[in-house]
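Sat 14:20. Reprocessing the chain from the morning session after the first attempt stalled halfway. Input below, unchanged.
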Amino acid sequence: MKIDGLTKYITSHLFLQIFIGLITTANMQMVTAQLTPDNSLNSTVRNDTVNNRDIIEGGAIRGSNLFHSFTDFNVGADRGVYFSHPDNIGNIFTRVTGSNPSSILGTLGVLGNANLFLINPHGISFGDNARLDVKGSFMASSADSIIFDNYEFNSTDTTVEPLLTVNIPRGLRFRDHPGNITLTNSSLTVPEGKTLALIGGDVSLNNTQISSRGSTVELGGLTSIFSVTICCFKKV
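Finished this time. Tokens:
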């Protein structure tokens, strides 16, 4: 009887450990699934458990530009997502190549001075407590691609990587019926002298504050195939 009891205890204890392990694994998968690199540009995500944030590293460097590519890109509530970059980087370009819109519910930031561009043709929403932690300019857009003189950073065609040298961005290209940019109960700011741009289909601001002394704010809504010139983003 004692042996049987011990066996039952060990079996129950082992089952409990496995069950807890499965729950922990599932929760980790839910967290990491918010940021899913598509492997086209060697983007990686490192979990910083101490500061409750994810650090985006890797990517493809071309001159002073850093390119990232994700199947899904979301920032969870009460969580941070930060881009890391070398000192010589002036611009970070991030595209979303999957079919889901992006949801920003926490802090989106840059560990450095680079400008940050985020494009998702299916739309981007900023929710409760969404905020920026950047030292450079910021642009969120539902554009299909970012246009350079010698390259097009396209969210629907990931077969061609950036050239060895890529100059400053010249514009945004939109397909028909671009996704919407929505802000609800958000507060977005950029430093003085920088630019904050939100360009998409319908751009909606609901109980949202966008403010920064001496900065430039650009809002633009489009409903059809179109190209928009970028003029106010400078190398830091």
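Residues 6-33 have pLDDT under 50 and may be disordered.
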